[in-house]
Amino acid sequence: MGNGPSKIKFHHNGKSRKKCYNTRRKSSSSLSSCSSSTASRQNSATSSDNDFYRFSYGRRYQNVENVNYFMPNDEDEMARLQLLHYLVKLNWNSDFSSPITERLKFGNFKVLDCGCGPGTWVMELGSEYPNSHFIGIDCCPIFPTSIKPANVEFQCTNLLNSLPFDDDTFDFVHMRFMVGSFTSEQWESIVIPELMRVCKPGGFLECMESDMKWVNSGPATDPYLQEYLRRTDRLVNINHAHRNIPIGGWAGKLGESAFQVAQQTFEASKIHLSEFLEISHDEYDELIRIACREFDQFQTMVPTFRFWAQKI
After folding, report:
1. Which end of the chain is more exposed for a tag (fewer CB within 10 A), N or C?
2. Which ranges carry the Methyltransferase domain (predicted)?
3. Tell me: domain 32-311, CATH 3.40.367.20, correct?
């Protein structure tokens, strides 16, 4: 980083200061009691996966063609994603925003989760709604294979190669924290069309993301996703909700939990971001130390948001 200007910023409550970080993506907490639900990790798929993975600086990463996701996908990352799940649920007080609760309870309702990771979201909903059926997909086999509810299944597939399902298969199609995994062209020409293709008419499509910048204003990605959804002309009742997740002890237990998630996210992003910023690992570590000190000082928040719409 040297003496030149930093290429990334943190934005805080009140005054903003240059210094920090501009990332997103799934992510630990005094929710650690929840995270110790490691059963799903202990029986994750471990087939002859060498083709799926590469290793760098002691971390394991996906090695799937055309996939842009740069975060690790090893045991530490699975724990981080599980903790992020519980943090988001605590902040939103729900696992989804689409109006489907009664239909899930009634049953005979098919749900697809794209980019399911360790499968925490799918497993939780499968247990909560035993009369409905849930499928999670991911490009790497990091999900449970044996210990799971009878109404839950997982498949290893790459969304960019088209989904292995017939048209109009699912009543609810869900995806979250995937905005950085695809290019703008992929979102518009492949991702959104595929999600809509497998969704039944009258079914719901829901996407959740966090902002690429940590700010207190509305999410910068808001017009990005919303415009894609509107342009399809096949979705109605397009809705948007936004909530900030506070980071640091100033926000109590929730903020302390978010702080731990942020620390783990910074560490998991070190290799990629230090290369992007053209700084050494030591310089990156110092940058993050400064950022973490400023969370309480400036009452930093991470914007998260959900879009949901109904297919015509």
Report:
1. C
2. 111-203
3. no
pTM for the whole structure = 0.78
Mean of per-residue pLDDT scores for the chain = 80
Q: What angle do CA 289, 292, 295 make, to 5 degrees?
A: 155
Write down the pLDDT at residue 49.
54
pLDDT of 95 strictly over 90: yes
